Amino acid sequence: MSSTIKHRRVRVLLPLSIGDVYDYRAPASLDVEIGHFVTVPLGRREVTGVVWEEAIDSDLAEERMKDILAVLPCAKLPQQSLKFINWVSQYTMQRRGKVLRMAMSVPDALYPKAPRTGYRFTNKVPEKLTAARRRVLDIVSESGAQTATDIAAIAGVSVSVIKGLAEKGVLETVDLPAESPIEVPDGQFAEVELSPDQVSAANFLASAVGSHEFGVSLLEGVTGSGKTEVYFEAIAACLKEGRQSLVLLPEIALTAQLLARFEERFGVRPVEWHSDLGQSARRRNWRAVIEGRAGIVLGARSALFLPFAKLGLIVVDEEHESSFKQDEGVPYNARDMAVVRGKIGSFPVVLASATPSLESLMNAKMGKYEHLKLPSRYGGATLPNVNVIDLKLNSPGSQRWISEPLRVAIEETLSKKQQVMLFLNRRGYAPLTLCDSCGHRLQCPNCSAWLVEHRLMNRLQCHHCGYSTVLPKSCSECEAEESFKACGPGIERLVEEAEALFPDRKIAMMASDTISSPRAASEFVAAMESGEIEILIGTQIVAKGYHFPNLTLVGIIDADLGLSGGDLRAAERTYQLLSQVTGRAGRETNPGTVYLQSYLPEHPVIDAIVHQQGDDFFALEAEGRESAGMPPYGRLAALILSGANAESVARFAAGLARRAPMGEKITVLGPAPAPLSMIRGRHRYRFLVKCARDINIQSVLGKWLQGYKVPSDIRMQIDIDPYNFM
Length: 726
Ligand SMILES: Nc1ncnc2c1ncn2[C@@H]1O[C@H](COP(=O)(O)OP(=O)(O)OP(=O)(O)O)[C@@H](O)[C@H]1O
Ligand SMILES: [Zn+2]
Known about the structure:
The structure is a single chain. By secondary structure, the chain is of the alpha/beta class. The chain contains 19 helices and 32 strands. It has 5 domains: 2-104, GIY-YIG endonuclease (3-Layer(aba) Sandwich); 116-176; 196-379, Rossmann fold; 381-426 and 489-622, 3-Layer(aba) Sandwich (Rossmann fold); 634-720, CATH 3.30.70.600. The radius of gyration is 28 Å and the shape is globular. The strands form 8 sheets. Strands 11-12-10-13-16-9-17 form a 7-stranded parallel β-sheet, with helices on both faces. The two termini are 51 Å apart. Helix 3 (131-143) packs across helix 4, helix 4 (148-155) packs across helix 5 and helix 6 (196-211) packs parallel to helix 7. Residues 444, 446-447, 449, 462, 464-465, 467 line the site of zinc ion. Zinc ion binds at residues 444, 446-447, 449, 462, 464-465, 467. This is Replication restart protein PriA.
């Protein structure tokens, strides 16, 4: 027992999905502290983990104890990160090791930078100039010496092409500095004169940042009101405190325009964090964050788990966006966890949106959050004029989607040399393809979902698993030849129609698969800003955040899309999305107009958009949620079971159902086959647990599942506060 312990023992958390803490001996030869990244033996392997706490009560026999092997030459994981990981693990009911893995996503960064070899052009032209070689030479002559891996990645060639050019004397090697330096932002670089509304919001935030105290502000400003300028002042105040700021964005494509605005305001670009970052930038940025050198970080939700040395502010921009919620791995909502992070670190958190979530509005109403409002657009710009086109009265005709009134409006706008945006939240050519002679519908073999035709790529795709195939020549059911017919519109089909209606206009299409990287996004932004695009046709990706001064007409092709989804937030989400799209029109001197095409012009969501009466809509929505005991008035958790064998999943679910928690304030719905009853060949069943607000839903679930063994062929995922009900 512990009386025989001679050496200091510590608990080390390993970043493994099955992992928790394990006890190790801290040998006297090593200076081991809490938060150190260390290597330890695990079975036959050597793994890296974090010294989590002292293990005073460790009762493992001395002979079974193993030594920590090494302390890595990296700054310690800050105490606040340890606390945060513990908290997230408890709240989401996921293993701590799995949460730690999100904070240790760049294993390389734990070691000092190895010297790098760069390749540069010697100006000797190779005898044989292949396309691959040409791309390499373009890159090295444009941006100078770079590592072989970087060149290979940018040029899309293998490293051997570069090595080959070096052997031929076309490229030569040079020593590269270990890493490009992190530039320091300057809060006074280009101060902006704010409007009176902006001043009062900005002053509040700046003093909140200066107080080093936790507090949440909901910054609600209509589209184009200058929320960004306001939170920039909070960031400037944070720089003054010598602390780091984090700005979270829902979509990395949005960073393009924002990066430039940061640069104008603070003199340098912020440190970026998202999935599109190359390996060396990840490593550099991660180290800059843990060493406190990164002053401003702009990132996707995963940036929340970066090991900030001295975080002093988090801004969650477009806080209502459901893409802040991660469904896979550790299911968490970055907006909610940002608030927790602020509490742990004693600093303010700003939630910014033109259409805040019902959750945040309620917190503001109850006085838990400070409610800062910007009621009008900046610089005298007015909100657009919104009109509904009743499709029952103005049918565009069979296989067409642009009604006559909208066509006329487009024509007029273009003749004034202004830009048009047509919005349809559907990728591809058509959402459904069916056989004209027997009605057979093309479905994904792995998922319970239709295949979506992408005509530009000449493929049919599943949007759930990525399965893709070509259009079959004949129907597998009735053997009819060439009988398949596209049903309904996707944006590709809308482009086709727009091209037919406006043959001389420059039309561009944007969707998440066409602007998936920040580089593609900035090319798109440049084309919009220069007027190279006259009609922009896009999905939700172009609906938010962007500021295009000359865009004055927005046409919403199918305003009803999303209303019938039936999930808890369908109406709220549709309202938010339509407001965002509406908000792209007329953001500067030329006033904007919006046309919504709808079969349901009286629907409360459509009505709220037309009259720009968000308050009434939200009051109605809140009432509905309250009477149903749904969030934010109640708590939800989902339990998702999946496996290759439908029967065994169903059997396991039935077993769980027999022990389901009961109580006056607890309802368990299910098990039921999920709406997407199969994904990637796995059959899925769902439970939905609903509790009153004052019930700890984690402990309800914990008691239910305690000691329950999940068979190895079944996966069970717990999702606290689910946003996805498919
Ligand atoms: N005080 C100011 N001085 C100069 N320009 C400003 C000021 N405030 C806002 N602007 C400009 O007004 C435009 C709209 O501002 P911004 O993009 O911050 O609005 P927003 O509230 O974030 O809008 P959205 O919710 O639609 O994204 C931008 O071009 C911005 O540069
Ligand atoms: Zn599929």
